[in-house]
Amino acid sequence: MVKAVKHYRPPGKKKEGNAAKFVTRSQALKQLQINLPLFRKLCILKGVTPREPKKKFKGTHQTYYHVKDVAFLHHEPLLEIHREIRVHERKIKKAEAKKNLERAKRLREKTPKPKIDRIIRQRYPRFVDALGELDDCLSMVHLFAALPAAESKKIDIECVHKCRRLAHEWQAFISRTHKLRKAFVSVKGIYYQAEVEGQKITWLTPHSLQQVVSDDVDVITMLNFLQLYEPLLGFVNFRLYHSINLKYPPILDPRLEALAADLYALSRYANANVNAVPSVVNSEASQVAESEQGDAKPKRDDIEHEKSELRLAQLQHQLPTNEPGALMQLVEEAASEEEVDQDTRECKNLFKDLKFFLSREVPRESLLFVIPAFGGIVSWEGEGAPFQESDQSITHQIVDRDSQGHKFLSREYVQPQWVFDSVNARIILPTVDYMVGR
Amino acid sequence: MSPKKQNEEDPHVSDSDTDSTYEDSSAADDDDGDSFGSPSESESEPAAGDDSEPDEHGESDSSGLHQEESDSSEDEVAPRNTVGDVPLHWYDDEPHIGYDIKGKKIKKKDKLDKLGSFLANVDDSKNWRKVYDEYNDEEVELTKDEVKLVRRLLKNRAPHADFNPYPDYVDWFKWDGAKHPLSNAPEPKRRFIPSKWEAKKVVQYVRAIRKGLITFDKPKEEDGPYLLWEDDSGLTEKSNHLAYIPAPKQRLPGNEESYNPPLEYIPTQEEINSYQLMYEEDRPKFIPKRFTSMRSIPAYENAMKECFERCLDLYLCPRVRKKRLNIDPESLKPKLPSRKELKPYPTACYIEYKGHEDAVTSISVEPSGQWIASGSSDGTVRIWEVETGRCLRRWDVGEAVNCVAWNPLPDVHILAVSLGQDVLILNTHLGDDEEQKKIKELLSVDTSTPSDDSGNSATSVRWLQDDKHGGIKLKFFKTVTAVEWHRKVLIHHLSKKLTQKLPFKLHGLAVRSTFHPSRSIFFICTKQSVRVYDLLKRKLIKKLDTGLREASSIAVHPGGDNLIVGSKEGKLCWFDMDLSSKPYKTLKCHPKDINNVVYHRSYPLFASCSDDCNAYVFHGMVYSDLNQNPLIVPLEILRGHTSSDGRGILDCKFHPRQPWLFTAGADKLIKLYCH
Predict the structure, then answer these.
(1) How far off is chain A from B542, nearest CA to CA, in Å?
(2) Among candidates A20, A25, A59, A61, which has minimal Cα distance to A42?
(3) Where are the domains of chain B?
């Protein structure tokens, strides 16, 4: 039975115009033989968006996709993988129903996993392209890093931890290479702007407080995005770490990690490996370094091949004392001077000879990121800190309280906003307006 | 039950909470039963209690109670009632509840009424652990241990606390010390030869594996990151799918999103309330808030929602590349020559002519450029020497002068003055005798032939018509001056002493008129349009549409093909009559009314003066090549006049030979601007 056709088209005559170029979403679903959630997921992963045909031939309330886009999804291997996953899920269900738990477990382990790397390469053929679209990725990863893991909301702990790690790795790179350009504290969080390979990347970090997952948010959609963003940031980080001769993923000092000082641990890792140790010479710091050396050793072996013998000898010689030798410093200076541009050099030297100490009440995470990014040395109150509050060489102590009890005369007490304002102005502002209690 | 046992057991059961136990034991002292194992003997005790019942009634209660207490194990003490396991409702109607061991009836106790029992219950703090024993008809108070026991039972545990349900297994057989096997049988042979069936099974598996029937689970692949973009410098491959449009970046935050924004960003309570009245779409999404310090910033409640909305935008919004013309605004500016190249033009005030006592309404420069005539609203007409500023002559005409105009012929020094309803033609007595004679002749002919007028004054010629004189300006090429009227225009031939009436009908009020510099063409400017008439053929040639609301002045380029019109709204229109009837260019330069516009006779200059006390000088080059449009360059703003009762510069004229500009202001001054 042939369906009655609305408009008569002579046999052999093809569709023309918009009707030939575009299909509605339900038509696309029918063509692809998938359900709507999977279609959405594929669209998110592949970056397929609806189109606006000049003439909406099926009505204005419809969503239209380009025929080529649908074909693009049709040829996607992910589609096949998701079908396999569905089959697998059915098998697992059956095994569980038959109490064949071992088989269910084996099947669960064998569930095929969609791989995103090819899609990432396809979407961002060049590294610069990926950097140019990193804004949303970074904001989302930073947001998820601050979310509470909730079983009911399908946000599992591993996902949160992974986001947290990725975010810290990114920050460590930016901070280490002094790529941060601007920072802005807003009600929504802290906006950062960095410039990597000529691309201006802006991202939002929520304040380090517990976020609430509201009910009017479809977490599944966000998790779909995260499924793309997580590997993307991983690959980007890998490439970035590769560019500064660091092994990725970094291996961290478990002690610092336990203290939730991930960022500091990462920066230490970077320092230990590239051996551009800014003189964090403190009795305790060196002690920490020594304890860290044990697990730092194997990492160093990896780089061994790349580095010249002389350099390695120096490196081995330098590290135990954790002091940059004169020659080493020269090499480092020469290497860094030629590669960095004017802007980076300016950023690197902003807080060059300053030593900061963060009080308890100050938002530690953001300042631990910002201050080293502009060449300063920073410590905080708590375990694992590189130096204590009583250190005489501290130049600035950052406090955010109404009154400061005991004051050291050798240092200035400023509010955290001073750091951000100085950073944005690129000069060390006078501290008069940022005194305690203002 | 033995009292000893009682005494032994009592403290063991509870020392703290029983008050009646010791009393009871004393009561039970007289009773002697030895064994407590048998129920019969144990039942002797309540009987003993019963014995003492008459003297101590309360005692029996307590003794019964004591019984219950003492027997933490039920089998020790039997109840004092001996009816056995019969339904108790058999005794409902009886006065007794049963029989004791000796067969005596046990009487029912008097029951307290409800109120009494309630009060007793309320008073008694231990009421909650009292249980009524229906069988023995008495209340039993549970001890602490008993309560614990009940609780343990409720929790499905063993009733005794010291009962261990999972004791360590103690093996009765000592394995370690055994020297010999348990059985003396020799080891079977099968334990020493490899299994045939196992070997078969192995072969089967090996074959299956070789054939590929059995596959092993592959080792788990670690899908960690790797160097994805290894070398993308030479990447030029064209993907065959549609062009990818990157999503627009999110807006960067402004001052209002700061945690401590300036006060003007923070909405007042009223404003916040008014947001509630708005539609949800119009409501601002973000309301600025102020926190005095960084530590007091709370978590942003909409963070998740905003991120989600961004996600929706990313995958649900159609992306279209908007073609935005990216034109450098600088490149849109016409390439104008610099002002330096266009010199000379008037730039600075050089001379001020003072003397008038009221606003100078009109000036006119003598064709040779030596003299300048001015008319003022104080009723005087003066002639000044241009270079020195000396006032040469002065006529008191007694009425406010509207307009003065020199005769354009250099040897006929006649001045036409319009005042009120009259037009005066004055002999200025300039020039040598011959010229003077000629003029006198001209004017005297005047006097001798009063053509159609009623009379004429000594030095003036008057054609007094029936129509009103409403003229503003009189001027003509060749010794003729024209006055224009309301609605009708008359042309006076001074040489012939004739007045023509223009045969055209005008639409709207005539504002200004002027003559073509070389041909007999006449321009009349009404409020909205300019009409061009041919005087010889007496017909309308052209009508120019100014697009202005109220034109105020008109000037014709010496070439004759271009004219400018000034308007009361401060606009200046340049018409190229060969081009179209619409303005070629409209310049909005003055904020107030333009009073006059004027062309220079020889230099490519034109000027406009306005009530805002400024005069603008423009470069207006007209090319002989018809393909080239006129070039208009603003050159200079001439300031200096002051405003008096809202009027600024009333008239301006160029010097006929030099690039100088005369301006007449309402501040009684005439100024000369030189280059």
Answers:
(1) 48
(2) A25
(3) 249-295, 341-397+489-674
Q: What is the ipTM of this complex?
A: 0.82
B270, B274, B275, B280: CA torsion to nearest 10: 170
Please state whether the peptide bond connecting residue A148 to the residue before it is cis, i.e. omega within 30 degrees of 0: no
What pLDDT does A339 receive? 53
What is the domain class of B341-397+489-674 according to CATH?
Answer: mainly beta
Closest to B503 (Cα-Cα) out of B473, B475, B533: B533
Contact B630, B595 (CB under 8 A): no
* Inter-chain CB proximity B252 and A416 less than 8 Å: no
The tens place of each residue's pLDDT in chain A, 438 residues long, gives: 555 556 677 777 777 888 888 999 999 999 999 999 999 999 999 999 999 998 888 888 999 999 999 999 999 999 999 999 999 999 999 999 999 999 999 999 888 888 888 899 888 888 888 999 999 999 999 999 988 887 777 888 999 989 988 998 899 899 888 889 999 999 999 999 999 888 899 999 998 777 788 888 899 999 999 999 999 999 999 999 988 888 888 877 666 665 556 667 777 776 666 543 333 333 333 333 333 333 333 334 433 343 444 444 444 433 333 333 333 333 344 444 445 677 788 888 888 888 899 888 888 888 888 998 898 888 888 777 788 888 888 888 888 888 777 888 888 888 889 999 999 998 888 888 888 766
Interface test with B, best of A188, A238, A244, A418 (most B CBs within 10 A): A188
Q: How far apart are CA B58 and CA B79, in angstroms?
A: 18
How much is the average pLDDT of B605-627? 86
Cα gap B571→B574, rounded to integer Å: 10
Look up tokens 């072969």; give the residue: B203
B-chain residues near A76 (CB < 8 A): none
Of B459, B361, B392, which is closest to residue B668 (Cα–Cα)? Answer: B361
Whether the pLDDT of residue B486 is over 90: the answer is: no
Residue in A260, A319, A246 with CA at minimum distance from that of residue A286 = A319
Distance in Å, alpha carbon of A388 to nearest chain B alpha carbon: 22
Q: Is A106 on the interface with B (CB under 8 A)?
A: yes
Q: Considering CB atoms only, which of A130, A202, A234 is closest to B225?
A: A234
Q: How far apart are CA B361 and CA B665, in angstroms?
A: 7
Q: Nearest to residue B66, comparing CAs of B9, B134, B129?
A: B9
Output phi, psi for B445, to 5 deg.
-55, -35
Distance CA(A438)–CA(A227), nearest Å, equals: 45
Beta carbons of B308 and A218 less than 8 Å apart: yes
Question: Any chain B CB within 8 A of the CB of A56?
Answer: no
Residue type, B52: S
Q: What is the pTM of this model?
A: 0.54
Hey, are the CB atoms on B257 and A186 less than 8 Å from each other?
yes
Q: Encode A267-300: b = buried (16+ Cβ within 10 Å), e = exposed.
A: bbbbbbbbbbbeebebeebbebbeebeeebeeeb
Tens digits of residue pLDDT in B626-649 = 778 888 888 888 888 888 888 888
pLDDT in tens, B405-458: 887 777 777 777 777 767 777 777 777 777 777 777 666 544 433 333 333 333
CATH class of A348-425: alpha beta
Dist. CA B661–CA B607, nearest whole Å = 8
DSSP string, B38-95: SHHHHTHHHHHHHHTTTT-HHHHHHHHHHHHHH-SSTTTS--S----SS-GGGGTTSS
Residue A280 per-residue DSSP state: -
Compute the C-alpha angle B167/B169/B175, nearest 5°. 165
User: What's the CA gap between A408 and B371, in Å, rounded?
Assistant: 88
As given in the structure block, the two tokens for residue A60 are 């204005």
